[in-house]
């Protein structure tokens, strides 16, 4: 977009007219691209990002002291929230301390991969476990054992299999669970992997840190 007060300064954002999507407690990046279309340099440019808590931005203000003619500059910002929901913010561009443009945006924080839908908890209803011939044999052995009444917990673990802990709410779950039955957390997301990965602002998919394009929707990261 081109501003009325600064006809030679063009501004574009990586998200365009769409919402910015991210996952709960996962950082998301977006960029503001500036271009000096004139023949004279522009001095003292500031780009600020304002958004309410609990959204956290490590660096809220970035400055360009001398912006040469016919040059372009990309400023990258990061955001993260520990609460899901929609948050309205704005990007303010100043030249020599005078506001020349304000760009509104919306950050949508979801619990798991949900695209641009309104974040809602996802709870999976446990399905009855089919009893195999092996489990029937185990149950028979335990029921006939004189110590069966003293070890009911061992019987349950042997039949249901090993358990895991949800990294988001610490609930005990089956090892084969894909989502947490209490908070809806996507158990396929590894914390140590997502901290070093790119999150697509278009579809919310997680990519390798070195990825340039999203493997799900093809958007440039």
Form type: elongated
Q: What would CATH call the architecture of the domain at 9-120?
A: Sandwich
Q: Tell me the radius of gyration.
A: 26 Å
CATH superfamily of the domain at 9-120: Immunoglobulins
Q: What topology, given as strand order, has the largest sheet?
A: 2-8-7-4-5
C-alpha end-to-end distance: 20 Å
CATH class of the domain at 9-120: Mainly Beta
Q: Structural class of the secondary elements?
A: mainly beta
Helix content: 10-25%
How many strands appear in the DSSP assignment? 12
Please mark out the parts with pLDDT under 50 across 5 or more consecutive residues, or reply none: 114-123, 132-158
CATH topology of the domain at 9-120: Immunoglobulin-like
Mean pLDDT, to the nearest integer, reads: 77
Helix and strand element order: EEEEEEEEHHEEHEE
Task: Work out the helix count.
Answer: 3
Kindly describe this structure.
The chain has 221 residues and is mainly beta. The protein has a domain at 9-120: Immunoglobulin-like. The chain has helices at residues 133-144, 152-160, 191-194, and strands spanning 9-13, 20-23, 28-36, 42-50, 61-67, 72-79, 85-95, 98-110, 163-165, 172-174, 197-199, 206-208. The strands form 4 sheets. A 5-stranded mixed sheet has the order 2-8-7-4-5, with no helix packed on it. Strands 1-3-6 form a 3-stranded antiparallel sheet, with no helix packed on it. The radius of gyration is 26 Å and the shape is elongated.
Task: Identify the notable features of this structure and list them briefly.
221 residues, Immunoglobulin-like, five-stranded mixed beta sheet, 11% helix
């Amino acid at each position: 977009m081109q501003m009325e007060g600064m006809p030679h300064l063009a501004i574009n954002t990586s998200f365009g007219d769409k919402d910015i999507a991210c996952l709960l407690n996962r950082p998301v990046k977006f960029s503001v691209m500036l271009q000096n279309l004139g023949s004279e340099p522009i001095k003292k440019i500031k780009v600020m990002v304002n958004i309410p808590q609990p959204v956290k931005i490590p660096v809220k203000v970035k400055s360009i002291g001398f912006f040469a003619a016919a040059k372009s500059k990309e400023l990258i910002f990061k955001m993260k929230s520990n609460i899901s929901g929609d948050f309205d913010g704005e990007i303010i561009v100043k030249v020599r301390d005078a506001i020349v443009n304000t760009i509104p945006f919306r950050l949508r924080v979801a619990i798991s991969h949900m695209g641009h839908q309104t974040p809602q908890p996802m709870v999976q209803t446990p399905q009855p476990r089919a009893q195999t011939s092996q489990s029937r044999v185990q149950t028979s052995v335990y029921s006939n054992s004189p110590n069966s009444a003293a070890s009911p917990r061992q019987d349950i673990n042997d039949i249901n299999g090993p358990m895991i802990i949800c990294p988001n709410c610490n609930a005990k779950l089956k090892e084969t669970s894909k989502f947490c039955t209490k908070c809806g957390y996507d158990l396929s997301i590894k914390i140590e992997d997502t901290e070093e990965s790119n999150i697509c602002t278009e579809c919310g998919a997680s990519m390798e840190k070195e990825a340039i394009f999203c493997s799900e929707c093809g958007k440039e990261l």
